[in-house]
Automatic annotation (TrEMBL):
GO CC field: plasma membrane
Identification of the protein by name: Acid-resistance membrane protein
Transmembrane segments: 38-58, 64-84, 96-115, 127-149, 156-181, 187-205
Taxonomic lineage of the native organism: Bacteria, Bacillati, Bacillota, Clostridia, Christensenellales
Residue numbers spanned by region Disordered: 1-21
Pfam family, one: DUF308
Presence of keyword Membrane: yes
UniProt entry keywords in alphabetical sequence: Membrane, Transmembrane, Transmembrane helix
Keyword Membrane: yes
Organism: Christensenella minuta
Length: 213
């Protein structure tokens, strides 16, 4: 192997971060294409949204709920369109069923949320139950995988068990207190936005973001 090939590989490894380490900051870097101004603007938006979540948790919580509900409807419609546009020989009935279910759930949640203040709280409770269920399911999967990792001598088996237990506890707490769980998740997300935004802003000002172009 020549030195040029080695250098090219080294440069590629430095320029392309591992796909498994994707985060909001990495997504922001890719979206800006390495532009310092765009990176700074996105960073400021992240910090502002994080601060607004702390300043007006109920209003922002409802706003996020509406956004997720709209996402359900859009995703469901997209699945239905994808099913219709797929040739008959390659159609999957689950795609159509999935689209109809997501669309109906989104519409029902949106209609109820727009109907009364209690409907808005029910919207948040519904999404909290969904998040809690996924956390609980993920925790069960991680705990059940711990034995296999330990038997195989894989490093980090203890972390898998610890993560599974944490997910189990979080899932149970969110399901038992959905509204409290929703706002807790929201505040954690706000902290992540603020810290990530500050880090991205500092990175943009230092010029490192532009160097990664």
């Amino acid at each position: 192997m020549s030195d040029e090939t080695f250098n090219d590989n080294g440069q590629n490894s430095n320029e392309e971060p591992p796909k498994s380490r994707m985060s909001l900051n990495n997504i922001a870097r890719q979206a800006t294409g390495g532009n310092k101004t765009a990176g700074a603007v996105i960073a400021i938006c992240m910090v502002v949204i994080g601060i607004l979540i702390f300043a007006a948790p109920y209003a922002m919580g409802i706003g996020i709920g509406y956004f997720v509900t709209a996402g359900f409807i859009v995703y469901g419609i997209f699945e239905i369109i994808a099913y219709v546009r797929t040739p008959a020989d390659y159609r999957n009935g689950w795609t159509l069923a999935n689209g109809i279910i997501f669309t109906l759930i989104g519409v029902l949640i949106l209609v109820e949320a727009l109907g009364s203040p209690i409907g808005k709280l029910n919207m948040l409770s519904t999404f909290s139950f969904i998040i809690g269920f996924f956390a609980l399911f993920g925790g069960i999967t991680q705990v059940s995988s711990y034995g296999a990792f330990k038997s195989a001598g894989e490093p980090g088996a203890g972390w898998v068990l610890a993560s599974g237990i944490i997910n189990l506890i979080l899932g149970i707490l969110i399901i038992c207190a959905p509204i409290t769980g929703w706002f807790t998740i929201q505040w954690i997300f706000a902290i992540y936005l603020i810290i990530g935004g500050v880090a991205l802003f500092a990175e943009a000002l230092s010029g490192k973001l532009a160097c990664r172009k």
